[in-house]
Design goal:
CATH superfamily of the largest domain: Response regulator
Protein name: Response regulator transcription factor
Keywords: DNA-binding, Phosphoprotein, Transcription, Transcription regulation, Two-component regulatory system
Distance between the termini: 26 Å
CATH architecture of the largest domain: 3-Layer(aba) Sandwich
Number of helices: 8
GO molecular function: phosphorelay response regulator activity; transcription cis-regulatory region binding
CATH class of the largest domain: Alpha Beta
Largest sheet: 5 strands, parallel
Structural class: alpha/beta
Mean pLDDT: 87
Helix content: 25-40%
Number of strands: 12
Radius of gyration: 18 Å
Bound molecules: calcium ion
Number of domains: 2
Order of helices and strands: EHEHEHEHEHEEEEHEHHEE
GO biological process, one term: regulation of DNA-templated transcription
Pfam families: Response_reg (PF00072), Trans_reg_C (PF00486)
Strand order of the largest sheet: 2-1-3-4-5
Strand content: 15-25%
Length: 220
């Protein structure tokens, strides 16, 4: 899952990003409305956290422009204080939810998770693939009923494979959803995580499809 935060208060944006990354999401941050619209238009995000008062272009207009262009990505709007802006206006522009600053971090995470679930990004919170259970809600993995401890990134890589179990998923697709754009290393980082997953889940759990990517093996 890859999230975009569009927020011009840099400290707030960075602390939100850090927290959400610790939950296992890939997070990109931009501080300007126009840049936010540009990034969001690329269509790789599973959810956007969008401030309303932004330089360049305000959040209502960013949201409206995305919807007008046909993007249905879930949008959680942030605003400065209750009553300053019209909640109905935010929802009219096509925002899915609305959070008033100051908010607790725990509430933000809960809203993000609820929104991802509601919008079908995690329609099936528990993925079952062969003997594996990948719980997208609790972010826990079990193999034959026994919990397997994974790091947040390992989980995120496995999740992408499990969402398309049986299909070949390319390294680029995994990278797009699991790493943010600050990552400038090469695609081979994914091999490191796949090796770690194979060690923990069994050597035969993930097949390499030469030149194409990886496939989570559905049998056994
Ligand atoms: Ca702002």
């Amino acid at each position: 899952m890859r999230l975009l935060i569009v927020e011009d208060e840099k400290r707030l944006a960075l602390s939100l990003a850090k927290g959400l990354m610790a939950e296992g999401y890939a997070v990109d941050v931009v501080h300007d409305g126009l840049e936010g619209l540009h990034q969001a238009s690329e269509g790789v995000y599973d959810l956007i956290v969008l401030d309303i008062m932004l330089p360049g272009m305000n959040g209502y207009r960013v949201c409206g422009a995305l919807r007008a262009a046909g993007h249905d990505v879930p949008i959680l709007m942030l605003t400065a204080k209750d009553g300053e802006y019209d909640e109905a206006e935010g929802l009219d522009t096509g925002a899915d939810d609305y959070l008033t600053k100051p908010f607790s971090y725990v509430v933000l995470v809960a809203r993000v998770k609820a929104l991802l679930r509601r919008r079908g990004r995690t329609a099936q919170p528990v993925l079952r693939v062969g003997s594996l259970t990948v719980d997208q809600g609790s972010r826990k993995v079990e193999r034959d009923g026994a919990e397997v401890a994974l790091t947040a990134k390992e989980f995120a890589v496995l999740e992408q494979l499990a969402l398309r179990a049986g299909d070949v998923v390319s390294k680029a697709e995994i990278l797009d959803h699991v790493w943010d754009f600050a990552y400038e290393g090469d695609l081979n980082i994914i091999e490191v995580y796949v090796s770690a997953l194979r060690r923990k889940l069994g050597a035969g759990s993930i097949a390499t499809v030469r030149g194409a990517g990886y496939r989570l093996v559905t049998g056994g």
